[in-house]
Amino acid sequence: MKIFAYGIREDEQPSLKKWQAAHPDVEVAFTEYTLTADSARLAEGSNGVVTLQTSPYTREALEVLHQLGIKYISIRNVGFDNFDFKDLNDLDFTLTNVPVYSPNAIAEHAVILMGRLLRRVPEFDQKMDNGDFTWSPTIGKEYREQTVGVVGTGHIGRVAIQILQGFGAKVIAYDVYHNPDIEKQGLYVDSLEELYKQSDIITLHVPLFDSNKYMINDDAIAQMKDGVYIINCARGELIDTDALIKGLDSGKIGGAGLDVLDDENSVFGKVWSSVDNIPNEKIRNLAKRLNVIITPHSAFYTETAIHNMITTSFDSNKALIEGKKPQNIVDTRK
Ligand code: NAD
Ligand code: COI
Predict the structure, then answer these.
(1) Active site residue 178
(2) Could you tell me the domains of the chain?
(3) What is the reported pTM?
(4) Which of 143, 145, 201, 268 has the most CB within a 10 Å radius?
């Protein structure tokens, strides 16, 4: 049995070596390149493919894998919004993801972004850089005075709720599916409108679908409290960046913590040396603001997460090749 892996980084190699050592019956080959129509040929002779990227998986790349007789694709991450399910179904692929490699990694990151906004850390950092050791005017806010609206109470949203409750915040939540634990605590509101109306901070933890693309738009922002903070550690396309910039300009939005951005692949993963060199005008606009904190889709990036992403994705791919049905098969027929 042979598995070919795409987009393997140096930080993943120790976990990959451990997995290989534990599975001497599996031949593993890999490349640092992501899966494209060109790199797809590298998988020739393999039974399955393990991959991770934030750019789209193109039909052309999948067609090459199909021609090579490969049927099994295992992504090392949670979100599969960069696949077109029609392509996967037409070409008869089975897809697995890693649904719970570490919800804590992302939830902690979201709450840290909130905390940095509440305590005005970027402004304090700038003052420190200028040798300004005074207090005013960078007065902060406390979590216990905040109502935090959590959109999406899946694996990540629920850990975020626990952490926020530890800080003493009042949490409300919205989800199309009601989790029994969150329901028991009486945290759900009936609509997004209600969540927008009540929240001082809104944090997004839902997958991206065609139906919720740009859910945070002019209309949604108009329903929010003045000075609201918006946190997005889910997918960039959930927020209409033009509407966000407008809201920040008017002061309707008090700040934003963004681990993901619309069109992030034009900027993330590269070194621009200065914010002035960022080639995407909207992202450059956001990056220049002291009340906007951007991180490069790194919420997931912890040692624990990386280890679990490698182990589960390779386990799943091996299981598929052996004709088993691991629990983390993505339902692409929905
Ligand atoms: P999950 O599937 O466990 O939970 C998602 C929740 O969203 C579910 O409870 C679902 O019912 C709910 N939901 C779906 N559509 C909704 C809608 N329109 N309105 C309200 N609720 C809706 O997923 P998760 O593990 O919590 O991850 C959430 C998302 O976080 C992923 O889909 C992915 O896009 C993103 N993510 C980001 C990073 C990162 O590094 N920034 C890492 C992992 C995951
Ligand atoms: C995910 O797991 O869905 C992420 O967003 C992490 C990223 C490495 C793709």
Answers:
(1) no
(2) 2-101+303-322 (3.40.50.720), 103-294 (3.40.50.720)
(3) 0.97
(4) 201
